[in-house]
Each structure stands twice: as structure tokens, then as C-alpha cells.
Amino acid sequence: MERELSPQNTEKLVQFQELSGIDNLNMCIEILERHNWDVETAIHDHLGLDPREVTQSVREVPVFPLQNGQTTINRPVMQQSIHRPQPVDSIFQRIMTFFSNTLLDDNMGLWPSATNQRPYGFTGWMLFVSSLPLRVLMVTFYQFSRFVFRIIRPEHRPAVTDPTGNVVSFIQEYNQTFGDPHPTFYPGTYSQVLNEAKKELKFLLVYLHSKDHQDTNKFCRQTLCNSEVIEFINSNCLMWACSVDSLEGYRVSQALRENTYPFLALVVQREFRMTVVGRIEGFIEPENLLQRLRTIISDNEAFLVAARADREERSFNQALRQEQDVAYLESLRADQEKEEKKRRDRLLEEERLREIRELELAEERKKEEMIKKKQDAITQVPPEPAADETGICRILIRLPQGQKLERRFHRTIHTLKDLYYFILSHPDSPYQFEMATSFPKRTLPWQPGMDITPTLAEVGLGASEALLVLDLDA
Question: What is the DSSP string of 110-165?
Fold first, then answer.
């Protein structure tokens, strides 16, 4: 279904279509309607760009970077290097754009402005009013002729493939033609110098050079080479210059929309956007140029002061946050080290207690085993022989704690095993021990688990012996 559009929306539709490359009118209209017919927002949303990079002047003149594949927003500036078919109603759209621009453009020379000399006195105003119809007729004829020419022969320019090369070539050509005395030209693209000015919070002076204009040579040889002009610009601004005959210069020209040459534009960051705050068109004497630049810079210095203060505040806050973060991390690290030390100490203490408990349990098990062994030993001790029996050996036994035991054994019947279990069955005897004679001192070779069990006579014990019990756990 065909939609009726106002002249303003028709112009916006033409702009969006030529910038986006979308041939489907209904699709373009739907995109614009989603963004409330804001061409700038729609373009950046369609191209996936950051809208904060967009900067406009006080007169809504775009000054954002013009790089490969990018273009201006306020009006169609050039075709892409690949030709796209025009929509069916493009002529109607061009007609509406023509009348809209003719009636709304403030640079056509219909009314007195900074670029058109204001009339003075009654006679001057009478001459101005009487010539106004002729001015309207001439401007209308000029605009209509340009409009018809653009319809018949639309302008095609390839995309900028080497913007830096355009700028460097211009600087070299300028130095060869006019010599080295001139303000320092920034040897980079328009996008780069905009970013540099924004980063350094400095004014940016843009110079568009047209070698075919009659005032260009005079301006370069008299004004730009003036020592006071050079010193002032180098001290207060970044300066970027390029020829409008190059692709990079042409694209910047389409963004700034100059009326004549030489052309200077002063750009500064204003409310977080790079904005054109001053335009100087036509030849100007060095003294007048300095006066204009001083006035514009003075009027807009407050924006840079505010931006610097804001940046310093943000830097201070960032530094403060970093210090706080460092202090927090240091405190956190110290707390973590304390917690780690506590954890290690706790683990060590737990390990120590575990080892103690294991030792205690082992000792308890050992005691339980020895108690059981003592109880078993009682059952293995043979009966004591009578005193009047032959072959008796009376043995006096001294325990490690000083207790003394005495008992009779058969020298040829009883063995070291019987003697060992007799000693082990006593409550005060050690759990692990050895038996030894007192004099001469020698160890009696028997321990539980030994297969050989010699008799007392076989180990050399006589009718009366004194033995010592040696505690192996002592």
C-alpha cells in the first residue's frame, strides 16, 4: 500500500536510502518509523555504529569522521563506487528535496548574514528590498539548474581508499607551491585529527583548499604564512588541511558545506560532541583572522575548561577507585593470608592430634594385647615342683622396678619358655623383656615365637641362679 509522506519525511527517506543503500522503499520507511524519522539514529542503527561518535555543529553541520564507506547525514553527498538502481519515485523525492532546500537553506544569499554584507541606512535597505525579487529569481534559477543537472547526470565518486595519502600528498604539494612557513598541518585523516583533538581537548582548525579559486594563492601567501598567525594556530589549535580536489577533502567538504574559498572551520568538543563553532569563508587578512580566531576561541574556551574539569574529575575518581581497589585487594589478600595461615595451623593441629590419638590407640591396643598375653601366660606356667625333688633349680628374679620373684623349676624338664611365661604372668613385669644372668652377665636366648625351647640345664643354669629382667620398652 502506497503511503503519503510529508516533504520533510520524503527528504529524510531520500537521505536514508542513499546512505544505507537499501532500495526497498517500504523497508526504509519502516526503519525510519521505528526511529521516529531520525535519520541519524536510523543510519547508525542500520550500520551498527556508535552514536556517540556523531558530532554536529551549532547549525547541525556534521563533522564526524569521514572514512572509507562512511558518508554525511544531513544530505546525500556522493554515490558509492558500485552503482545502485534508483527507486521508482526518486525524481519526486528529488523535487521535494529541491524545494525544501531552496526555502529552508540559510546560505542562499536571500537575507543578510555574516557572509553577505548587511545594508546600512535607509538607502541601503531600499536597494536591498528592491533587488530582493531579482535575488529570489536568480537563486531559484540557480538551484533549479543545479537540480536538473544532478538528475540528468548524477555525481559519481569512488570511495576514499587512501585518505591518509590524500592528506600527505596535499601537504607535500602545498610545501612545494607555497613553501614551508605555515601552521603545522596534521598528517592524518580527518577522523584521526578529530579523535586527536577530542583526546587532547584542543581546538581543531580545518582548512579546505581549492587551488582553482582566485583568492587561494593570496590567502596562502599572505595569511597562512604570517608568523603571528602561525604562532597563534600552533599554540592554540590542531590544524588539518586538505584539497577539495582529493576524495578525502571532498568528503569533508560535503560534511562542512562551505560556500566559498578559502574556507576555515573551527571545531571543538562541546557537550561531549565535536562541533563546528566558527566558520570563516573567503579571503581574510592576517589581523582579521587572528581577531576572529581569538573571539571564537574565547567564546568557546569554557567548553574545553568544562571538559578538562570533567576529565580531571573522572580521572581523579578513577584513580581514587583504583586506590580503593588496591587497598581492598591488599586487605583481601591479607585476610586471605590470615585465613590460609589459620587453615594451615588448624590442619597441623588436627594432624598432631590425630597422630597423638593414633599413638594413644596403638598404646591402648598394645596394652590390651599384653594384658591378654599376661592372662594367657598364667595358663602356660607349669606347676612349681616340691623343694625336696631332685634336679631342682631355685631362681631369684629381679624386675626392672626392683621387685623380686623367686621360684623353683626342674633343670631338665622346664624350659626357658616356662621361665619366660612365669615372669610375664606377674602383674609388675614389663610387656617386652629379656632375661639375663647377673654374673657372669649373659642374655638367655628366648623370645615368644622361637621354635627352639632349650631346658634350663641346656642354657647352663645351676641349682641356684639370680636373673635380671631387662625392659625392652624402656
Answer: SS--SSSPPP-HHHHHHHHHHHHHHHHHHHHHHHHHHHHHHHHS--B-PPPS-HHH
Measured distance CA(350)–CA(338) in Å, rounded = 18
**Residues 6 or more apart whose Cβ sits within 8 Å of residue 84:** 21, 23
Residues 6+ apart with CB under 8 A from 167: 185, 186, 187, 188, 189, 240, 241, 242, 246, 248
What angle, rounded to 10 degrees, do the helices at 247-256 and 163-178 form? 100
Amino acid identity of 164? T
Neighbour tally for 205: CB within 10 Å: 25
Q: Please provide residue 206's backbone torsions phi and psi, each rounded to the nearest 5 degrees.
A: -100, 130
CB contact set of 144 (below 8 Å; sequence gap of 6+): 98
216 in Cβ contact with 245 (< 8 Å): no
Per-residue pLDDT for 24 more than 90? Answer: no
CB under 8 Å to 73, separation ≥6 — which residues? 15, 19, 39, 40, 43, 54, 62
Angstrom distance (rounded) from CA 437 to CA 416:
13
Residues 6+ apart with CB under 8 A from 184: 234, 239
The side-by-side arrangement of strands in the sheet containing 237-243 is 237-243, 203-209, 263-270, 273-281
CA triple 150-151-153, angle to 5 deg: 60
- Cα(198)–Cα(188) distance, rounded to whole angstroms? 15
pTM (two decimals): 0.45
Q: What is the pLDDT of residue 82?
A: 29
Q: What integer pLDDT is reported at residue 52 of this predicted model?
A: 43
CB 74, CB 12: distance < 8 Å: no
Q: CA nearest 262: which of 229, 222, 225, 213?
A: 213
pLDDT band at 73 (very low <50, low <70, confident <90, very high): very low
Q: Is 121 left (phi over 0), alpha (psi -120 to 50) or beta?
A: left
Domains of the chain (ranges, CATH numbers): 7-49+84-152 (no CATH), 163-183+204-312 (3.40.30.10), 392-471 (3.10.20.90)
DSSP 3-state assignment of 455? strand
